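Archive entry: two folds, one per protein. Generate the first.
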Amino acid sequence: MVMTFVGLFLVSVSGAADIRYRLSGPWEDLSDGTTNGWDGGVMPGSADTARFNWGDNTVTLDYVAPNVSRFQMGVNESGGLEVNAGGSLTATGNCKVGNNNLCTGWLTINEGGVVNANGGWTQVGGGDNTTGILTIDGGEMSINGHLWIASKTGSAGTVTINGGTLTVGQNIGLGTIDAASASGAVAFVNVNAGVLNLHHWNAPGSIQDGSVIDVRYGTVNITNDGDQSDEAQDYADDGKITAFGGSGTLTIVHVNGVTTITATHPMDPWPREITVPVGDVELSWTNLDPNDPADSVWVDVWFGTAPDKLDTLQYTQVKTEGENTIAVPVSAPATGTYYWQVDSYTYGDPALVVYDNNDLNPDSFGVIEGDVWSFDATSDAPPSVVDAGADMITWFGKLTPMAASVVDDGESDLTYAWSSDPADGVLFSATDEEDPGVTFPPGRTVVKGIQNNNYDAEEHINALSPDPDKPYGMVEIGSNDLELGSESQNGRDWQVIAVQYDTLGIPQGANITSAKITFQVDNSGSARDENNFTILAEAADDAVLFSNDPNITGRARSAASVGWAPAATPAVGTKIDTPDITALIQEVVDQAGWSEDNRLTLMIYPDVYLDLPDPSTGGDTQVQEIEFEAGAGDDSATLTVMFDIPEGSPPASGATTYTLTVAVHDEFNPTPIEDTMTVDVYETPCYAAIAAGEGADYIADYNGDCIINLADFAAMIAPYWADDYALTVPIPTP
């Protein structure tokens, strides 16, 4: 075998060998046959297998080790590896934690430690009658291939994440070696904190009977397998994914292509893992269920600056045997970390019931000792003043600097977040700076809500509706809400809803660049068989108001249409945008008789109605229902249209108003403090200057050059108007 020096260490560089660490000690030690270190005085290299299997001893790693082919813990003898801060290990081949011969192997990765297993698979409890223990204690482990846990007969495998991240690049199996057939062993994955990232699983085979993924304060993500919410729920229903050992509540969501599983503790404690201001703090929680529903629950509450309640110098009992107590005031007078714990008596009054935790005494019961929770307290107060700045006037296309001011006496850095309403096309130079620049898009934007109760309506359109109080053809105007799709009778009382807007300021022939309606959910409604809708405009250059002609289905429909399938049962208060309806608005404003003060009607039909050969026949299809807010106000159906004026048209004298919001918080106070300001944006700098009432020095022409006096300004602006247009606002005189 050829040897080479790396620093002061001998590393194997040719051939392939199984190199065993003798006794326990740091990775870099080399053994002379009697001392601890790598047997034979040779450190494993890229072709070798590093083995940790000497009489229950542990090797520690706190630097970047040379790459190895494989690592194995628990081969013929038990042993393990602990990777500490600064330690890093990469293996290119298949690895085992718990290998054979009734042995136990363990791998612990502490905070700051990193392990990469780049082979086709990694096994934890990978041999007959062996035990494998993988613990992520704040560090990071990346497994490029599959992760098989308790994959052989009689084996046992446990993966525990107490913080940090475990990422699995391929499949996972608990009690299986192929995510299909059972090994006859059971596996446990405990996500106590931190993150478990799974590429995919094979449901239901990845978690075999008896094996469990238990989620506590950590998170499980399935990143590359589509929506796995149903599969995760099936596992939960079978007791294969649990929350806090089965006593908590799982939350399973699919957002942005990732299925995420989290858990809520059955006691839902507050505060936990957050930072609060120093001073008085109220600890609060939800009590566990009593063994007898008719009984109360008694609790002991512990609080202090150390996590061990037996440390009487740092931990005190702030409540003893409190009956149905769910909150206790405490004081956190100084910056630091505080710990608290709630122990529960669930078998009755501890003054009458024996609680001695004695398994040998059949007449005694155990106190349920609670988790230790913690929070930080800080004297760093949140910003005392946040001012977005004075309201401003500018013009489209100009980079306009913000002028916010913040008063903050704290020491931590501030975080800024700017936003705009409307947001379409608005560009910030940076949204996370105190005073970014902002540019408003060329073109015009109109945002219009429902003017009053005469501007929205709904018509009952199923001739077979079983509701005698809502007959076919009945129109309701001024309702408290707009029921999209159907209103009652299990989805068979079909409805078309319609909204109207006028004085939009959109000239005939304008080029519509985007358009949408935003509804606010008033009631989540019901998911049913049919959820497809079609949005249409009324083919009229000036629609008749509903109060004068309530009929909706009798109105002419636009040639253009837009399909819509909104998600079922959205949360109350949610804002929901329709798909882009540019084509509908464009068709209306292109009509020869359209003018900017005319009225527009938009209608949303259930497709099941439009598909009927004869609408008067009706049908039995059950249509989805969502209730939207109706009438005027901030929660009304809001139309947003962006458009460009036709070439050769004069600039508009009016402004589009944008509301800008800055939200500011610091490291220790995550709840942001917000302030808003408005910006009136004009089409030209000339109109902006006129609106601002500024003197000659602030009036600029289209090229940004300063005008010397107001007379020059009048001469400059005249060529931009066609002969048959007149200025709609006066030009100031000197």
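Generate the second and append.
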Amino acid sequence: MKSIKQQQEENLMRRVAYWRHNPHKFVEEYLALKLFLYQKILIYLMFKFPSFVFIACRGAGKSWLIAVYTVTLAILYPNISIVVVSGTQKQSSMLMQSKIAALYNASPAVRLELGVPAQYSKLGGDNPHIKFLNGSVIWAAAPTDSARGIRAQIIVVDEYRMLKNGIVKNIFEPMLVGGQRELQFKLDNAEKYKDYEEQSGIIYLSSAWYKAHWSWNTFSQHVRNMVDNKGSFAVSIPYQVPVYHGLTSVKAMSKIKDEAGANMDFMIEYEGVFAGDTEGGFFKLEDIVRNRTIQKTMVPMTDEQYAENQRLSKPKKTCNINKIKGEIRVISLDVALAGGSANDTSAIILMRLLPHGDSYHRHVAYIESVYDTIETDKLALKFRRLFEDFECDYAVMDAQSYGYGVYDALASVMIDNERDKEYMPWCSINDEAMKKRHKNSSALPVLYTVKANAQFNSDIAWELRNAFERDKIKLPISDIERKEQMISSESAKYLSMSEYEKIRVLSSYLQSSLLTSEMVSLKSEIVDGGKVRIKESGKSTKDRYTALAYANYYAAEIEKKLLTEESNEDDYGSFIAFI
């Protein structure tokens, strides 16, 4: 006859075994947390497969699901060690602190398993972690060498696309080796259970990204392994799922989709689709993504900031990026017009030409699309202000059609009433006919004017593609990346910014993403004489591309001039030596 205690233990073990096979039931029955159907399926599959990739759209509750999964594991498997790694240790700690704290407040069972917060939570110091009363530990780790030495049975990699290639394989996968728990039944029956090994596992979670990135290889390899029944599982949850369950409203999602337009970011963030090349595209996504490395962009002063700055005894520079020795700065403008005014597709690019041997590396520091309808003289004033603020040396713009109106404004003395300034007139440095439109001997020769034809358009297209292929041109990183960096930074100033200020500081990063989408969607055809003609596809535009191509082309012209001057100096030196 079994005692009541023995019966209780056996019943408990049967229930635990049941819950281990059905973890979603444990979450609902023991933790008393409500799960949607897709969350039940994901929790169940995370327990079943040793290698798992979850691509989640924004709003799918990925972080909350990580917390539920890790807490469930920690309770059902005493003394288990779980490592959660994000882009930084601070991100990992924040994820654990906010989400597990939410579970602690929502579930009496979680409070019972963890005890007093001051005892279980050790999220400060060098080894932040949360410890359960049953001996299980959830560690927060940074993707650095400092994480080496931790032993774990389960590794959860949050936003794995943000990590450098090789970090998981070289630092975190070795944690699983020798990470088996000391199980009492194995110690008591060593011979019987000598071949028993608990299944270790690694969970990758992220939003989608670019196919040119290593994160795509990880996802696609898991898909192949899943098809071949090799113990892997991969899943992507698009925005329709959280909308169906009421986590996001249809109205809000429709607004986001309309505002995104052709931007790849919507496909990546909300549809859970990895972005790749367009069939027949002229530019390769891999070349562009590889060169999106600029971390700091120019943020122009607002009118209020400018006025306040001018009132200082020693006004600050209007550009937040210092100019280095030998640097040349170029601003370019593509004017798209309708009805006499520049429409919402005019584009401006600010480019830094940084000396590198006998050439220049071309860094794009600012991108702007003029969304609002604007008169040509006001567009010219905006262009002129940015030239001054960015401390530019040269300007490039198309001077055909209504571009003439912008040129005429720039070729005249410009009055800036808001800044109480007067700007000297410009003149074309490469077109005598344009120069003669305004006969002004004091005009500054800084403006390279473009009158595009089929040959010129072909030349700038090849020149830009060549620059990307040779890694000579760099664009700002994604707005998604930059936002995550700012949120996880030590100062975390982003969180205290107004919505307007957030938009301002992220603007060029977002424009860089739009530029990437724009360029990848461009198609080409070879026309008479071997020239290439760039064409938009569908509703896409090419205004940002054109402004970038202008700036890049003029950068190449400056390089050629530099090489010619150096060659002449060498010839002159040889001539002197010969004499």
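Annotation attached to the second fold: The longest strand covers residues 359-370. The CA atoms of residues 239 and 270 lie 5 Å apart.
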